[in-house]
Design a protein that fits this description.
By secondary structure, the protein is mainly alpha-helical. The protein contains 9 helices and no strands. Helices cover 79% and strands 0% of the residues.
Length: 268
Amino acid sequence: MSSSSAALPARLLRWSGAGWFSVAAIGQLAFVGFILAFYGVRTVTGRFAAWNDKPLIKGYIGGDDIGNAVFAAHVLLAAVLTLAGLMQLIPDLRRNRPRLHRWTGRLFLTLAAVMALSGVWLTVVRQSWLSSISGVAILLDAVLILIFGAMALRRALQRRFEVHRVWAMRTFMVVSGVWFLRIGLMGWILVNRGPVGMTDTMSGPADIVMAFGSYLIPLAVLELYLAATRSRHAALKVLAALLVSAAALFTAVGVFGTVALMWGPYLW
């Protein structure tokens, strides 16, 4: 096999990863835009009850000042967390702006821990869940965020930057679980032309898969991508490239559905 032929699978793998990240970045920026335009505007103008203009499990509740404050912080900080996470995954920023990379990384890991703990509080204390299964899925995601974030910070302090980068990517995947859930649900609905296997309480078979799969499936795809990157086997690189490309296509469908059907109607 010629050197150019041997290099092709590696290029395909890199291109597939870049393609998925490009689609995900567009979708996550749309998520940030929605948070600011919907929750941000209502919060800044003091129209807290208008959070409920969009159906929520438990949004604004009259008299629950602590719960409302935690909810507002959790939702609004999600925009900052998402932007910081995206910045961590931009190679040029990491190479050419190391100081900015470090500070946004510290912000990302700090907010990830805050969001995980506030998510636990909202789930356990405020009982913001539709079913016990979805509640367990949220708590498991929070545990993974705290563990992965701690590992990413530890490896950075040890100056083991390649290992740190891997843990940071893992943290990004589990932190993005809320976003992945929305993308996954809308992608599933559009692909199947209806809510197959889904219920209003998120207790249907598809709901259960999505509740846990919203972070476990992206994490598994990432692990395959990393393994293929390290491997010398061309077949594994091609297989991983095809899987990541399929994930990018499904993500694009989910982003379109989420923007058009889940977020857009409450802005337009």
